[in-house]
């Protein structure tokens, strides 16, 4: 499924980044980082249309490169979740992506509920890591 | 077409392409550029054609055009080079000929598409001032001659606009020609790479016919757009798109779609590009008068315009909306992408589409168009790739995608120095790297970073900064490399792992070896200022403490101003001025002294795995002049909280602000400001520096003949000793004022200051000696007898050594010794009493080792003028050991009424024999540990001291006060002196307590007795000689000497015989008879009044008799007449 999963904080600083291949880690960082531009654009576009309190949290496909597709999701507290999917993985349906995001959101909420977690810090929760690694492709 | 033109916009579809070429080398490049700018300004001409339709004609000037691009002219007519302007300057005929030749040869190159040409020549054939030559015969073009390229070429603009109109008319005629062509006669238009595709195909087929028609219609659309008829063009494009779609001619369909979008944009925003020439130079505005005045309203195209604001009131129905434009562009991109040879066209259309989307404010669309460019594979040289990336970055920047923009900037930067690039250019690479910092939320100024960290994408920021360092290093600017590396270590510290920190630090050391870093801003050639970066984490300051001066150096105010704290012991409100509260936030409440070395303690942590040498550590201060001493320290690897002390000397008086410290480590000089240090909560420390003060050192000179060591004196209680206080002025100015005080009991330490004032002012290096007398005031009185009754009973029941007591009748004794009811009434009064008594006891508790602090307050110029002084403190320890102790005491009436006996049990507490001298003439030797009882005659406490206590004796306070007064009275009179070999001392009775019975003896009786026997003058000293059977008249007058009446008074007379062995016989019934009352009761005796009692007595037997007269008041006090009246009864014979 996913090759890289990133949780990005409100101020657009990464809180957690995990990917399958360690040697490409910096590549993924760049990809996720530049996808923030699109997330921000999409957010500002929706915030312009007033009266829609129920914002769509799943932003869908942000952009695609030759190797990867990048999907985004934003919580109501502006925490961004980005999933990078291998472009060859064509069988993935939209609601499967949504399910992944929801699962990540839940795991994130659980991690943040820890009273010893200081909001804004990188996430180190073991349980959260397990959930994320469960979603990453075993290669 | 070899490479795309990245600057293409939709607007270029409607322009006439004109090449402006620079010929010869007479004209400087600069003046050519000036000419080009002037020509470029004439890019818009407005006509009204024969049908009354206004035409807006645009020209696009370029400086270079590959011939290959001209081949695409059939595919898209705006790619055709329609005009040629050459610019040259000449002086001779030969030059002129050369220019003409070159012009002609250029004409030949673009011959297939050129409509008309101009040759602008400066320097000849213009008026009389210039030489006149004739161009060669083969020169067929129109030449424009100007005398010079300056003011004298004013006609150039008119000529150019005339030239554009000539081009237009040719174009217009071509358009008409094309539009009149018969449908079945039209030829097939081909894109350059298509030529071989159609070889051998049936050109007469139906689909081919359609293809021809479709392509021609599209071509017509192109021409209409160029000729200023966008609405017509729109129709043509739409028709062409339909036709071409039906026969699947995708390449041309793409082109038609592209044209459709471009035409729609042109229709909707006709004035968009009119003012690209905007009056950069206002003096040239006059030449632009041909333009419409409305041109000012439009923008330079870089801004995103609100589409609606510029829409024309009536638009043709088939014009495309924003979304449709994007959709059509997308379609055209998809169609182009199917042709490998159309890559260049595809890239260009992507850029055009992106720019359109930018203008329409559709960022996401623009992003997707730009994203698409990356997928198009073109083999391009590196410099073209860089151009492409920079254009991408620029466009991403325009839609606010700063991260993408930075990414492409960085990519472009790496292309400058890639292995494939034949001319690596590190300068460009470095500049681009710097520009890309902002997109990663990086800045060169460390103060831009928030204190909390966690700003932006640390992982990437680290990488980006590292790359900048590498680029700076390769540029050869090692000071920049050092600066950037320092910045990396400063701002990315929290992101770096320990290993990375270590590596980075080592790297910095290597770079800084070439050029030392220092905290001054660097200015690049481009004018960019690179602010200083500091190594605030190497070493890390864990704490920063501004030390007080050591206590002997601390300045103090001479006169303490009593601060008003209001009526509350504690209050959160600050009385007085509020501003004191605000200013004192970082202000330290202690003082430094000018010219005095002051200290700041810093705890440093070395985060690195190697030994760190930090040299030249100094304090950074503002405010008054401060001379700081540099410190060099070597921190062991990974040491935690290594304490270093920075010292310095303030040179002036005023406020000193300590803002941080500077270091020099790893080859970098850093200024570590406190406000930048996360571990330190203060942003600065402010400390007041007061004027310089002299310095005195005080020492104690103890007489060493006794076994004394250091500042300790061992004394027996009551002993005294001499020692000396030596004050020495250390060379810091004269001392003008000395005050000495001590915090211990003044009775213990006394000093003689009589000589002191005469020795002031004290010169530098001078010494003053002050004699001190130490007296070991000890506790000699054992303790307050907890149970007076038991003491008494032990005294009484023991030996009969206290005859006064036994002489009392048992019944009376009880009333006397039992404490008065009020004395023990109620727990509360008891408590208050006991507490007072405990206090009494504590005052005289055994002292043991007593610490005396002698404070020498001194001051001198200049500090004395501002009211500051210093205090030198010496400590004198007095070890007091017990000498004698008074374990018990009692009082006895003496033989006279003015005195009483103080009977003391004196105990020798030392381990030596001691001689106790208890009165002026009497002394006794006491063995070690032995007790001894001594009587001391003491004057009774006069009424003047205690008279007031007779008034109301009910309150406990009065009882206690009376006790204290009497005890003080005794203490002041009695002084027991002791001698032990050479040592001697004295013991006071301070702290002795007295029971109420004792008090009656101690204090003077308020009753004065007058006893008349047989009407003789009172004479108590000699016994009255009477004979048996004689009736003796006794008249007793009791005078009340108090200033108030005594109530409930009873007077009594009793005879007794004293056997002088301690027993008295009161049972004298058979030996005498008394007539008249022996007791009378008086309800009241007025103040200063008297009571009289008379009786007669007859003695039956001879012998010695005594008569005691006593008076008791309220059953509480008993006063006896002392001594008793004696009778010597003799036989009648």
Overview of the structural elements:
Chain B: Residues 290-303 have a biased composition (Low complexity). Chain B: Residues 277-287 have a biased composition (Polar residues). Chain B: Residues 545-661 form the Trs120/TRAPPC9 first Ig-like domain. Chain B: Residues 893-1002 form the Trs120/TRAPPC9 third Ig-like domain. Chain B: Belongs to the NIBP family. The complex is a heterodimer of chains A (139) and B (1133). The termini of chain A are close together. In chain A, helix 2 packs antiparallel against helix 3. The model of chain A has no long low-confidence stretch (mean pLDDT 83). Chain A has helices at residues 25-48, 94-113, 126-135; strands at 2-8, 14-19, 58-64, 68-74, 80-86. With 139 residues, chain A is α+β, with helices and mostly antiparallel strands. Chain A is built from three helices and five strands; from the N terminus they run E-E-H-E-E-E-H-H. Chain A has a five-stranded antiparallel beta sheet with strand order 2-1-5-4-3, with helices on both faces. Chain A has a single domain, classed as Beta-Lactamase (2-Layer Sandwich), CATH 3.30.450.70. Chain B is of the alpha+beta class and 1133 residues long. In chain B, the strands form ten sheets. In chain B, strands 36, 38, 39, 41, 43, 44 and 45 form a seven-stranded mixed beta sheet that branches. A six-stranded mixed beta sheet of chain B has the order 2-3-1-4-5-6, with helices on both faces. In chain B, strands 11, 13, 15, 17, 18 and 19 form a six-stranded mixed beta sheet that branches. In chain B, strand 38 (1046-1058) and strand 39 form a beta hairpin. In chain B, helix 4 runs antiparallel to helix 5, helix 5 (206-226) packs parallel to helix 7 (250-268) and helix 16 (478-491) packs antiparallel against helix 17. The longest helix of chain B has 24 residues, at 156-179. Chain B is rod-shaped, with a radius of gyration of 61 Å. Chain B starts with 14 loop residues before the first strand and ends with a strand. Classes of the chains: A alpha+beta (139), B alpha+beta (1133). At the A-B interface, helix 1 of A face helix 11, helix 13 and helix 15 of B.
């Amino acid at each position: 499924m996913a090759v890289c999963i990133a949780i990005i904080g409100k101020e657009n600083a990464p809180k957690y980044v995990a990917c399958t291949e360690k040697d490409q880690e910096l590549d993924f960082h760049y990809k996720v980082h530049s996808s923030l531009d699109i997330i921000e654009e999409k957010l500002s576009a929706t915030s312009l249309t007033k009266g829609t309190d129920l914002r769509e949290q799943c932003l869908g496909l942000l952009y695609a490169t030759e190797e990867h597709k990048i999907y985004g999701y934003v919580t109501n507290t502006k925490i961004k979740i980005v999933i990078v999917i291998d472009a060859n993985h064509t069988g993935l349906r939209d609601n499967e992506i949504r399910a992944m995001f929801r699962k990540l959101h839940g795991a994130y909420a659980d991690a943040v509920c820890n009273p010893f977690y200081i909001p804004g810090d990188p996430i180190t929760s073991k349980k959260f890591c397990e959930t994320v690694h469960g979603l990453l492709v075993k290669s | 077409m070899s490479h795309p033109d990245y600057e293409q916009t939709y607007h270029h579809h409607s322009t006439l392409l004109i090449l402006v070429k620079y010929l010869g080398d007479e004209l400087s490049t600069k003046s050519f550029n000036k000419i080009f700018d002037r020509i470029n300004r004439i890019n818009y001409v407005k006509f009204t054609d024969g049908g009354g339709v206004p035409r807006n004609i645009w020209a696009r000037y370029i400086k270079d055009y590959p011939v290959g691009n001209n081949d695409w002219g059939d595919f898209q007519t705006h790619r055709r080079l329609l005009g040629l302007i050459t610019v040259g300057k000449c002086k001779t005929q030969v030059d002129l000929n050369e220019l003409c030749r070159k012009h002609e040869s250029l004409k030949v190159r673009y011959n297939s598409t050129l409509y008309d040409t101009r040759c602008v020549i400066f320097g000849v054939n213009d008026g009389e001032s210039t030489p006149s030559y004739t161009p060669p015969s083969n020169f067929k073009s129109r030449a424009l001659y100007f005398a010079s390229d300056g003011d004298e070429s004013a006609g150039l603009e008119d000529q150019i606009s005339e030239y554009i109109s000539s081009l237009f008319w040719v174009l217009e005629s071509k358009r008409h020609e094309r539009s009149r062509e018969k449908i079945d006669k039209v030829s097939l238009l081909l894109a350059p790479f298509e030529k071989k595709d159609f070889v051998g195909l049936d050109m007469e087929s139906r689909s081919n016919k359609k293809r021809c028609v479709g392509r021609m219609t599209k071509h017509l659309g192109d021409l209409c757009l160029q000729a200023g008829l966008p609405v017509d063009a729109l129709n043509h494009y739409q028709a062409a798109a339909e036709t071409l779609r039906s026969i699947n001619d995708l390449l041309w369909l793409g082109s038609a779609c592209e044209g459709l979008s471009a035409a729609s944009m042109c229709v909707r925003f006709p004035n968009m590009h009119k003012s690209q020439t905007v009056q950069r130079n206002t003096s040239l505005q006059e030449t632009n008068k041909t333009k419409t005045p409305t041109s000012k309203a439009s923008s330079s195209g870089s801004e995103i315009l609100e589409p609606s604001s510029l829409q024309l009131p009536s638009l043709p129905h088939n014009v495309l909306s924003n979304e449709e434009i994007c959709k059509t562009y997308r379609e055209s991109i998809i169609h182009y992408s199917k042709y490998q040879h159309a890559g260049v066209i595809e890239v260009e259309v992507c850029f055009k589409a992106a720019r359109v989307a930018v203008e329409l404010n559709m960022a996401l669309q623009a992003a997707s168009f730009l994203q698409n460019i990356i997928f198009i594979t073109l083999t391009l040289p590196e410099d073209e790739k860089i151009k492409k990336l920079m254009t991408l970055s620029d466009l991403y920047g325009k839609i606010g995608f700063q991260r993408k923009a930075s990414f492409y900037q960085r990519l472009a930067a790496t292309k400058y120095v890639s292995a494939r690039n034949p001319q690596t250019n590190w300068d460009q690479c470095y500049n681009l790297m710097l520009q890309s910092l902002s997109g990663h939320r990086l800045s060169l100024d460390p103060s831009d970073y928030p204190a909390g960290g966690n700003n932006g994408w640390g992982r990437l920021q680290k990488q980006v900064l590292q790359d900048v360092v590498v680029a700076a290093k390769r540029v050869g600017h090692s000071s920049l490399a050092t600066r950037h590396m320092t910045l990396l270590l400063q701002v990315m510290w929290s992101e770096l792992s320990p290993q990375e920190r270590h590596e980075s630090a080592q790297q910095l050391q290597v770079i800084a070896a070439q050029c030392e870093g220092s905290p001054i801003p660097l200015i690049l050639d481009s004018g960019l200022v690179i602010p200083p970066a500091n190594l605030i984490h190497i070493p890390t300051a864990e704490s920063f403490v501004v030390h007080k001066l050591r206590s002997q150096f601390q300045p103090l105010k001479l006169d303490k101003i009593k601060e008003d704290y209001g009526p509350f012991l504690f209050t959160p409100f600050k009385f007085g001025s509020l501003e004191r509260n605000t200013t004192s936030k970082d202000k330290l409440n202690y003082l430094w002294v000018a010219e005095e070395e002051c200290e700041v303690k810093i705890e440093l942590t070395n985060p690195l795995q190697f030994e760190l040498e930090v040299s030249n550590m100094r304090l950074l201060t503002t405010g008054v002049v401060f001379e700081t001493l540099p410190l060099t320290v070597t921190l062991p690897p990974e040491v935690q909280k290594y304490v270093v002390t920075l010292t310095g000397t303030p040179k002036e008086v005023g406020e000193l602000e300590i803002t941080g410290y500077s270091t020099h480590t790893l080859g970098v000089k850093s200024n570590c400001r406190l406000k930048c240090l996360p571990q330190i909560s203060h942003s600065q420390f402010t400390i007041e520096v007061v004027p310089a003060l002299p310095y005195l050192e005080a020492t104690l000179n103890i007489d060493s003949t006794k076994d004394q060591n250091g500042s300790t004196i061992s004394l027996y209680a009551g002993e005294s000793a001499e020692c000396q206080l030596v004050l020495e002025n250390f060379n810091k100015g004269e001392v003008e004022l000395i005050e000495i005080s001590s915090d211990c009991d003044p009775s213990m330490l006394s000093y003689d200051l009589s000589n002191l004032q005469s020795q002031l002012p004290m010169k530098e290096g001078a010494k003053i000696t002050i004699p001190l007398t130490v007296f070991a005031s000890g506790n000699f009185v054992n303790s307050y007898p907890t149970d007076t009754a038991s003491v008494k009973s032990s005294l009484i029941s023991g030996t009969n050594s206290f005859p006064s007591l036994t002489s009392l009748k048992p019944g009376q004794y009880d009333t006397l010794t039992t404490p008065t009811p009020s004395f023990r009434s109620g727990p509360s009064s008891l408590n208050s009493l006991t507490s007072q008594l405990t206090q009494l006891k504590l005052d005289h508790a055994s002292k043991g080792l007593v610490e005396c602090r002698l404070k020498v307050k001194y001051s001198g110029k200049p500090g004395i003028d501002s009211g500051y002084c210093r205090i030198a403190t010496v400590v004198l320890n007095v070890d007091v050991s017990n000498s004698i102790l008074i374990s018990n005491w009692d009082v006895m009436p003496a033989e006279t009424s003015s005195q009483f006996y103080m009977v003391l049990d004196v105990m020798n507490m030392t381990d030596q024999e001691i001689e106790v001298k208890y009165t002026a003439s009497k002394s006794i030797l006491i063995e070690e540990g032995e007790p001894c009882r001594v009587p001391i005659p003491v004057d009774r406490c006069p009424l003047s001291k205690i008279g007031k206590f007779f008034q109301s004796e009910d309150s406990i306070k009065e009882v206690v006060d009376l006790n204290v007064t009497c005890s003080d009275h005794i203490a002041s009179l009695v002084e027991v002196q002791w001698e032990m070999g050479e040592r001697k001392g004295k013991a006071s009775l301070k702290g002795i307590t007295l029971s109420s019975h004792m008090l009656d003896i101690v204090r003077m009786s308020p009753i004065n007795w007058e006893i008349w026997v047989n009407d003789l003058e009172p004479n108590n000293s000699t016994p009255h000689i009477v004979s048996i059977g004689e009736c003796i008249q006794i008249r007793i007058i009791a005078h009340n000497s108090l200033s108030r009446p005594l109530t409930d008074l009873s007077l009594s007379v009793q005879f007794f015989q004293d056997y002088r062995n301690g027993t008295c016989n009161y049972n004298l019934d058979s030996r005498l008879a008394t007539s008249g009352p022996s007791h009378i009761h008086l309800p009241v005796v007025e103040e200063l009044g008297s009571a009289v009692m008379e009786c007669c007595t007859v003695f039956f037997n001879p012998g010695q008799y005594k008569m005691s007269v006593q008076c008791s008041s309220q059953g509480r006090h008993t006063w006896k007449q002392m001594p008793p009246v004696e009778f010597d009864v003799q036989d009648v014979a």
